[in-house]
Amino acid sequence: MRSFRLLSLAFAFALGISACSSDSGDDDASPSGDHSGTEQPGTASAEITASEGGDLELGAAKLSVPGGALAEDTTLTVESKKPAAGLPDAASLSGLVYDFGPTGTTFEKPVALTLPLAKAPGAGKEAVIAYLDEASGSWADLATTVDASGAVSAEIAHFSSYVVRIRNTNVEMGGGQVDCSFTACGGDPSGTWRIATACITGAGGDNPFGDACAEGTIDIDVMADGTLTVENGRYTWDLTVAGNVTSNIPASCIGPLSGGAATSCDDFGGDDEGTTCSGSLAAGCSCTQAGEPEMDTSAGTLEVRGNQVIGTEDGEEPGEPSDFCVKGNSLKLMIHETSDDGSVQDTLLAFTK
Fold first, then answer.
1. Fewer CB within a 10 Å sphere, N or C end of the chain?
2. What is the C-alpha to C-alpha distance for residues 306 and 303, in angstroms, rounded to an integer?
3. Under DSSP, is residue 256 helix (H, G, I), strand (E, B) or coil?
4. Range of 95's domain?
5. pTM of this prediction?
């Protein structure tokens, strides 16, 4: 049975890639949206005078407050932490989330916020600093610049939760950038749709490295291209999916994962020539393996049932239902897949006309 989905293309390459170490204990990928790289959670504070201003720094993150931005001398605080699972558009988040205080602080002048970029966004994507808009429950992207070292900077006017998001640069849907949020709404899927982006969450267990490294993470950077055509109750796929898988190994995990034998980050790359590693044993290692592009061309019938579609490939039995939503020139298709171990992987495909 083949369902109306990417079939084996649903990033299966990512699920079979090891975590760079030859003794990882578990090579499944973790949920996306946790690209913390070598930055570690922590806290910091600084006394900032209203007249002269000052800096608040935590790791590679820096808040530069100019004189006159604060109404009075204030002790500013920041706490960095890994993104919580319940945050909106979790798959788009890169690195740690930074919560600044005192809560409710506003500035009389723009304040410069610089955050580290955990990894390069990839082709057709860009990194932006965003803050969590509590009223709407969504991320508000800010005008962002990237310096030569890869750090990203933006001007902020108030305190909130700030993070780096990775978004598309060349495709817009519904008047805004493509994101990985989703609510099933149904609609008419007829037409020819060009894929804009793909998001994956929930692939594998809570800890990709096993008991040897509770802090390790795996990032999945997905790239997709191609079209979906729906007409007169039939569909045609013509899709290609590729991407990279990056294993982030904190310094605290170097010894346990290598048995104390690692002499450099390259030791975690294995024998695969397609894997590149960076970092240091003191700061932590990051190893990236490129997945081979996968292609799928198929055709069949398509049945719409409320907010779901069921595709039946020619000559095959009906597939499993997939949730979908059409709004204007955008189509989002959500595929839920359950692994043998009971874990659920959600694959979101976003299309535009």
1. N
2. 10
3. helix
4. 42-81+89-168
5. 0.47
